Amino acid sequence: MKHLVLLGGGYGGMRLMKRLLNSSELPSDVQITLIDKLPYHCLKTEYYALAAGTISDHHIRVPFPEHPQLQVKYGEVTGLDLAGKQIHLLDDETVTYDELVIGLGCEDKYHNVPGADEYTLSIQSVDKSRETYQVLNNLPHNGVVGVVGAGLSGVELASELRESRSDLNIKLFDRGPIILNGFKPRLSNYVQNWFIQHGVEVINNSNITRVEKNVLYNHDTAIECDAIVWTAGIQPNKLVRELDVEKDAQGRVKLTKYHHLPNDENVFVVGDCASMPFSPSAQLAEEQAEQISDILLKKWRNEPMPELEEIKLKGVMGSLGKKSGFGTMGGASLIGRVPRLLKSGILWLYKYQN
After folding, report:
1. Residue 246: its pLDDT value, please?
2. Which residue, among 68, 63, 80, 65, has the nearest Cα to 31 in the 3D structure?
3. Which of 243, 216, 235, 323 is nearest to 273 (CA)?
4. Where does the chain cross the membrane (predicted)?
5. Percentage of residues in the chain having pLDDT higher than 70
6. Dist CA 346 CA 354 (whole Å)
7. CATH label of the domain that carries residue 260
8. Residues 267-276: tens digit of each pLDDT
9. Domain for residue 343, yes or no?
10. Residue 296 counted as domain residue
11. Of the residues 163, 201, 249, 262, which has the fewest C-beta atoms closer than 10 A?
12. Is 133 domain-assigned?
Protein backbone atom coordinates (compact mmCIF):
# COMPACT_ATOMS: atom_id res chain seq x y z
CA MET A 1 0.00 0.00 0.00
CA LYS A 2 1.31 3.44 -0.95
CA HIS A 3 0.27 6.42 1.14
CA LEU A 4 0.14 9.94 -0.31
CA VAL A 5 -0.49 12.75 2.17
CA LEU A 6 -1.69 16.17 1.02
CA LEU A 7 -1.12 19.03 3.44
CA GLY A 8 -3.76 21.64 2.68
CA GLY A 9 -6.91 21.59 0.60
CA GLY A 10 -6.18 24.78 -1.32
CA TYR A 11 -6.20 25.27 -5.08
CA GLY A 12 -3.23 22.97 -5.61
CA GLY A 13 -4.58 20.25 -3.34
CA MET A 14 -8.04 20.38 -4.94
CA ARG A 15 -6.67 20.11 -8.47
CA LEU A 16 -4.36 17.26 -7.44
CA MET A 17 -7.23 15.28 -5.89
CA LYS A 18 -9.43 15.88 -8.90
CA ARG A 19 -6.79 14.65 -11.34
CA LEU A 20 -5.72 11.62 -9.31
CA LEU A 21 -9.14 10.42 -8.16
CA ASN A 22 -10.67 10.77 -11.63
CA SER A 23 -7.78 9.01 -13.35
CA SER A 24 -8.19 5.46 -14.63
CA GLU A 25 -4.44 5.10 -14.05
CA LEU A 26 -4.65 5.50 -10.26
CA PRO A 27 -3.38 2.21 -8.78
CA SER A 28 -5.81 0.50 -6.42
CA ASP A 29 -3.11 0.20 -3.73
CA VAL A 30 -2.70 3.98 -3.35
CA GLN A 31 -4.36 5.60 -0.35
CA ILE A 32 -4.61 9.42 -0.26
CA THR A 33 -5.01 11.40 2.95
CA LEU A 34 -5.89 15.09 2.92
CA ILE A 35 -5.09 17.03 6.09
CA ASP A 36 -6.78 20.40 6.53
CA LYS A 37 -8.04 22.57 9.37
CA LEU A 38 -11.37 23.25 7.67
CA PRO A 39 -14.08 20.80 6.54
CA TYR A 40 -14.27 22.43 3.10
CA HIS A 41 -12.14 24.10 0.44
CA CYS A 42 -12.28 27.91 0.52
CA LEU A 43 -12.06 30.21 -2.49
CA LYS A 44 -9.22 32.36 -1.26
CA THR A 45 -9.36 34.60 -4.31
CA GLU A 46 -12.75 35.82 -2.99
CA TYR A 47 -11.72 36.59 0.58
CA TYR A 48 -11.68 40.31 -0.23
CA ALA A 49 -15.44 40.18 -0.97
CA LEU A 50 -16.14 38.25 2.22
CA ALA A 51 -14.24 40.87 4.23
CA ALA A 52 -16.04 43.73 2.44
CA GLY A 53 -19.43 42.13 3.08
CA THR A 54 -20.59 41.78 -0.54
CA ILE A 55 -20.81 37.98 -0.44
CA SER A 56 -21.77 35.60 2.35
CA ASP A 57 -19.65 32.86 3.85
CA HIS A 58 -21.29 29.95 2.03
CA HIS A 59 -20.45 31.47 -1.39
CA ILE A 60 -16.75 30.72 -0.90
CA ARG A 61 -17.06 27.10 0.27
CA VAL A 62 -16.54 24.07 -1.95
CA PRO A 63 -16.85 20.55 -0.46
CA PHE A 64 -13.89 18.21 -0.60
CA PRO A 65 -14.31 15.26 -2.97
CA GLU A 66 -15.46 11.85 -1.80
CA HIS A 67 -13.74 8.69 -3.02
CA PRO A 68 -12.98 5.21 -1.62
CA GLN A 69 -9.23 5.92 -1.85
CA LEU A 70 -9.44 9.33 -0.14
CA GLN A 71 -9.46 9.96 3.59
CA VAL A 72 -9.94 13.50 4.89
CA LYS A 73 -8.42 14.24 8.28
CA TYR A 74 -9.26 17.50 9.99
CA GLY A 75 -6.52 18.96 12.14
CA GLU A 76 -3.79 21.54 12.46
CA VAL A 77 -0.27 20.57 11.42
CA THR A 78 2.30 21.42 14.10
CA GLY A 79 5.45 19.83 12.68
CA LEU A 80 7.02 18.23 9.61
CA ASP A 81 9.55 15.44 10.12
CA LEU A 82 10.85 14.85 6.61
CA ALA A 83 13.60 12.50 7.74
CA GLY A 84 11.11 10.27 9.57
CA LYS A 85 8.35 10.76 6.98
CA GLN A 86 5.95 11.92 9.67
CA ILE A 87 3.41 14.73 10.05
CA HIS A 88 2.62 15.90 13.58
CA LEU A 89 -0.83 17.29 14.40
CA LEU A 90 -2.05 19.51 17.22
CA ASP A 91 -3.67 16.67 19.15
CA ASP A 92 -0.34 14.76 19.27
CA GLU A 93 -1.46 12.48 16.45
CA THR A 94 1.21 11.42 13.96
CA VAL A 95 0.56 10.62 10.30
CA THR A 96 3.18 8.76 8.26
CA TYR A 97 3.54 9.00 4.50
CA ASP A 98 5.29 7.53 1.50
CA GLU A 99 4.83 10.64 -0.63
CA LEU A 100 4.00 14.09 0.64
CA VAL A 101 2.65 17.20 -1.07
CA ILE A 102 3.05 20.39 0.97
CA GLY A 103 0.45 23.01 0.13
CA LEU A 104 0.12 24.93 3.37
CA GLY A 105 -0.37 28.33 1.76
CA CYS A 106 0.89 31.70 2.94
CA GLU A 107 0.68 34.29 5.69
CA ASP A 108 0.92 38.07 5.76
CA LYS A 109 4.41 39.52 5.46
CA TYR A 110 4.86 42.65 7.56
CA HIS A 111 8.34 43.68 6.35
CA ASN A 112 9.47 44.33 9.93
CA VAL A 113 7.08 47.29 10.25
CA PRO A 114 6.59 47.81 14.01
CA GLY A 115 3.00 47.22 15.12
CA ALA A 116 1.76 45.96 11.75
CA ASP A 117 1.17 42.43 13.01
CA GLU A 118 -0.63 43.57 16.15
CA TYR A 119 -2.75 46.46 14.93
CA THR A 120 -3.88 45.56 11.41
CA LEU A 121 -6.58 43.31 9.97
CA SER A 122 -5.97 40.57 7.42
CA ILE A 123 -7.64 38.68 4.56
CA GLN A 124 -5.10 35.85 4.35
CA SER A 125 -7.34 33.21 5.91
CA VAL A 126 -11.07 32.66 6.04
CA ASP A 127 -11.08 33.16 9.83
CA LYS A 128 -9.23 36.47 9.55
CA SER A 129 -11.45 37.59 6.68
CA ARG A 130 -14.50 36.96 8.85
CA GLU A 131 -12.95 39.01 11.65
CA THR A 132 -12.14 41.80 9.19
CA TYR A 133 -15.74 41.80 7.98
CA GLN A 134 -17.04 42.17 11.53
CA VAL A 135 -14.81 45.16 12.18
CA LEU A 136 -15.52 46.89 8.86
CA ASN A 137 -19.25 46.19 9.06
CA ASN A 138 -19.45 47.77 12.53
CA LEU A 139 -17.61 50.98 11.67
CA PRO A 140 -19.54 54.21 12.22
CA HIS A 141 -20.71 56.53 9.44
CA ASN A 142 -17.73 58.34 7.87
CA GLY A 143 -15.32 55.91 9.48
CA VAL A 144 -11.80 55.89 8.04
CA VAL A 145 -10.35 52.66 6.62
CA GLY A 146 -6.69 52.42 5.64
CA VAL A 147 -5.81 49.66 3.16
CA VAL A 148 -2.05 49.12 3.12
CA GLY A 149 -0.86 47.64 -0.16
CA ALA A 150 -2.32 48.26 -3.62
CA GLY A 151 -1.58 44.95 -5.26
CA LEU A 152 -4.38 42.75 -6.52
CA SER A 153 -5.76 42.01 -3.03
CA GLY A 154 -5.69 45.61 -1.86
CA VAL A 155 -7.26 46.93 -5.05
CA GLU A 156 -10.09 44.39 -4.96
CA LEU A 157 -10.75 44.92 -1.25
CA ALA A 158 -10.83 48.71 -1.51
CA SER A 159 -13.13 48.71 -4.55
CA GLU A 160 -15.49 46.11 -3.05
CA LEU A 161 -15.60 48.01 0.24
CA ARG A 162 -16.53 51.16 -1.65
CA GLU A 163 -19.63 49.35 -2.97
CA SER A 164 -20.43 47.73 0.36
CA ARG A 165 -19.98 50.84 2.53
CA SER A 166 -20.30 53.98 0.42
CA ASP A 167 -20.30 56.04 3.62
CA LEU A 168 -16.74 55.13 4.58
CA ASN A 169 -13.61 57.14 3.88
CA ILE A 170 -11.18 54.71 2.26
CA LYS A 171 -7.47 55.42 1.94
CA LEU A 172 -5.43 53.09 -0.28
CA PHE A 173 -1.68 53.20 0.34
CA ASP A 174 0.48 52.28 -2.66
CA ARG A 175 4.28 52.10 -2.68
CA GLY A 176 4.49 52.80 -6.41
CA PRO A 177 4.00 56.00 -8.40
CA ILE A 178 0.71 54.60 -9.73
CA ILE A 179 -1.53 51.67 -8.80
CA LEU A 180 -0.48 48.30 -10.30
CA ASN A 181 2.74 49.84 -11.55
CA GLY A 182 3.92 46.50 -12.97
CA PHE A 183 1.10 46.40 -15.53
CA LYS A 184 0.81 48.35 -18.77
CA PRO A 185 0.07 52.09 -18.34
CA ARG A 186 -3.39 51.79 -19.93
CA LEU A 187 -4.48 49.32 -17.25
CA SER A 188 -2.78 51.14 -14.36
CA ASN A 189 -4.29 54.48 -15.35
CA TYR A 190 -7.74 52.95 -15.65
CA VAL A 191 -7.60 51.45 -12.14
CA GLN A 192 -6.15 54.61 -10.59
CA ASN A 193 -8.83 56.76 -12.23
CA TRP A 194 -11.56 54.35 -11.12
CA PHE A 195 -10.63 54.97 -7.51
CA ILE A 196 -10.46 58.73 -8.00
CA GLN A 197 -13.89 58.76 -9.66
CA HIS A 198 -15.38 56.63 -6.88
CA GLY A 199 -14.04 58.70 -4.01
CA VAL A 200 -11.26 56.42 -2.78
CA GLU A 201 -8.16 58.35 -1.76
CA VAL A 202 -5.08 56.81 -3.35
CA ILE A 203 -1.80 57.67 -1.62
CA ASN A 204 1.00 56.81 -4.05
CA ASN A 205 4.70 56.58 -3.17
CA SER A 206 3.72 55.68 0.38
CA ASN A 207 6.01 54.06 2.93
CA ILE A 208 4.39 52.74 6.10
CA THR A 209 7.03 53.02 8.80
CA ARG A 210 5.03 51.86 11.83
CA VAL A 211 1.51 51.13 13.02
CA GLU A 212 -0.16 51.86 16.34
CA LYS A 213 -3.72 51.28 17.49
CA ASN A 214 -5.91 53.17 14.98
CA VAL A 215 -2.90 55.06 13.64
CA LEU A 216 -0.54 54.31 10.80
CA TYR A 217 2.54 56.32 9.90
CA ASN A 218 3.26 57.11 6.27
CA HIS A 219 6.81 58.45 5.98
CA ASP A 220 6.48 58.94 9.76
CA THR A 221 3.42 61.18 9.34
CA ALA A 222 0.57 59.97 11.56
CA ILE A 223 -2.75 59.15 9.86
CA GLU A 224 -5.66 58.23 12.11
CA CYS A 225 -7.85 55.32 10.96
CA ASP A 226 -10.79 53.50 12.48
CA ALA A 227 -9.55 50.27 10.88
CA ILE A 228 -6.38 49.26 9.03
CA VAL A 229 -6.22 46.28 6.66
CA TRP A 230 -2.83 44.89 5.66
CA THR A 231 -2.48 43.58 2.10
CA ALA A 232 1.17 44.50 1.57
CA GLY A 233 2.82 41.15 0.96
CA ILE A 234 2.83 37.44 1.73
CA GLN A 235 5.28 34.80 2.86
CA PRO A 236 5.13 30.99 3.08
CA ASN A 237 3.47 29.30 6.04
CA LYS A 238 5.61 29.38 9.20
CA LEU A 239 6.10 25.60 9.19
CA VAL A 240 7.62 25.81 5.72
CA ARG A 241 9.80 28.78 6.67
CA GLU A 242 11.22 26.68 9.52
CA LEU A 243 12.08 23.67 7.31
CA ASP A 244 15.79 22.97 6.92
CA VAL A 245 15.71 23.00 3.12
CA GLU A 246 17.05 25.34 0.46
CA LYS A 247 14.87 28.41 -0.11
CA ASP A 248 14.85 31.51 -2.29
CA ALA A 249 15.01 35.11 -1.10
CA GLN A 250 11.27 35.11 -0.40
CA GLY A 251 11.51 32.01 1.81
CA ARG A 252 9.90 29.72 -0.76
CA VAL A 253 11.25 26.19 -1.18
CA LYS A 254 13.54 25.54 -4.14
CA LEU A 255 12.52 22.51 -6.18
CA THR A 256 13.59 20.38 -9.11
CA LYS A 257 11.74 20.62 -12.42
CA TYR A 258 9.55 17.79 -11.10
CA HIS A 259 8.40 19.98 -8.17
CA HIS A 260 10.04 17.88 -5.44
CA LEU A 261 12.91 18.63 -3.07
CA PRO A 262 16.35 18.25 -4.69
CA ASN A 263 17.38 15.70 -2.03
CA ASP A 264 14.00 13.99 -1.56
CA GLU A 265 11.93 12.88 -4.54
CA ASN A 266 9.04 11.92 -2.23
CA VAL A 267 8.34 15.46 -0.98
CA PHE A 268 6.58 17.88 -3.36
CA VAL A 269 5.69 21.52 -2.72
CA VAL A 270 2.79 23.27 -4.43
CA GLY A 271 1.40 26.79 -4.40
CA ASP A 272 2.54 29.75 -2.28
CA CYS A 273 5.36 27.79 -0.61
CA ALA A 274 7.06 26.78 -3.90
CA SER A 275 9.83 28.78 -5.53
CA MET A 276 8.62 29.39 -9.09
CA PRO A 277 9.40 31.97 -11.81
CA PHE A 278 5.96 33.53 -11.25
CA SER A 279 4.20 35.34 -8.43
CA PRO A 280 2.08 32.98 -6.29
CA SER A 281 -1.48 32.55 -7.54
CA ALA A 282 -4.32 30.04 -7.61
CA GLN A 283 -3.69 29.51 -11.32
CA LEU A 284 -0.02 28.69 -10.75
CA ALA A 285 -0.87 26.23 -7.96
CA GLU A 286 -3.30 24.43 -10.27
CA GLU A 287 -0.77 24.23 -13.09
CA GLN A 288 1.79 22.78 -10.69
CA ALA A 289 -0.76 20.25 -9.44
CA GLU A 290 -1.47 19.10 -12.98
CA GLN A 291 2.20 18.24 -13.45
CA ILE A 292 2.61 16.68 -10.00
CA SER A 293 -0.35 14.39 -10.67
CA ASP A 294 1.26 13.19 -13.91
CA ILE A 295 4.55 12.61 -12.10
CA LEU A 296 2.94 10.60 -9.28
CA LEU A 297 0.92 8.42 -11.65
CA LYS A 298 4.05 7.60 -13.66
CA LYS A 299 6.01 6.91 -10.49
CA TRP A 300 3.38 4.58 -9.02
CA ARG A 301 3.20 2.62 -12.28
CA ASN A 302 7.03 2.38 -12.55
CA GLU A 303 7.00 4.28 -15.83
CA PRO A 304 9.52 6.88 -17.06
CA MET A 305 8.99 10.42 -15.81
CA PRO A 306 6.81 12.54 -18.13
CA GLU A 307 8.18 15.29 -20.33
CA LEU A 308 6.93 18.42 -18.60
CA GLU A 309 6.03 21.48 -20.62
CA GLU A 310 6.99 24.92 -19.38
CA ILE A 311 4.21 26.38 -17.26
CA LYS A 312 2.50 29.28 -19.00
CA LEU A 313 -0.13 31.28 -17.17
CA LYS A 314 -3.19 32.42 -19.06
CA GLY A 315 -3.45 35.84 -17.48
CA VAL A 316 -4.76 37.79 -14.51
CA MET A 317 -8.30 38.98 -13.79
CA GLY A 318 -9.22 41.47 -11.08
CA SER A 319 -12.44 43.17 -10.04
CA LEU A 320 -13.37 46.75 -9.30
CA GLY A 321 -16.64 46.13 -7.54
CA LYS A 322 -19.34 44.10 -9.23
CA LYS A 323 -19.54 46.02 -12.53
CA SER A 324 -15.98 46.74 -13.60
CA GLY A 325 -12.63 45.03 -13.68
CA PHE A 326 -9.21 44.72 -15.25
CA GLY A 327 -6.92 41.99 -16.44
CA THR A 328 -4.37 40.66 -18.86
CA MET A 329 -4.74 37.88 -21.39
CA GLY A 330 -2.23 36.88 -24.03
CA GLY A 331 -0.26 40.08 -23.49
CA ALA A 332 -3.34 42.28 -23.95
CA SER A 333 -4.74 44.55 -21.26
CA LEU A 334 -8.47 44.29 -20.56
CA ILE A 335 -10.45 46.98 -18.74
CA GLY A 336 -14.10 47.63 -17.99
CA ARG A 337 -17.03 45.23 -17.82
CA VAL A 338 -15.56 42.40 -19.93
CA PRO A 339 -12.79 41.31 -17.51
CA ARG A 340 -15.29 41.49 -14.62
CA LEU A 341 -17.64 39.15 -16.48
CA LEU A 342 -14.73 36.88 -17.36
CA LYS A 343 -13.69 36.66 -13.71
CA SER A 344 -17.25 35.83 -12.65
CA GLY A 345 -17.42 33.14 -15.34
CA ILE A 346 -14.12 31.60 -14.25
CA LEU A 347 -15.33 31.50 -10.65
CA TRP A 348 -18.65 29.89 -11.62
CA LEU A 349 -16.87 27.29 -13.76
CA TYR A 350 -14.44 26.45 -10.95
CA LYS A 351 -17.24 25.89 -8.45
CA TYR A 352 -19.25 23.85 -10.97
CA GLN A 353 -16.32 21.62 -11.89
CA ASN A 354 -15.47 20.94 -8.27
Report:
1. 97
2. 68
3. 235
4. none
5. 100
6. 12
7. 3.50.50.60
8. 999 999 999 9
9. no
10. yes
11. 249
12. yes
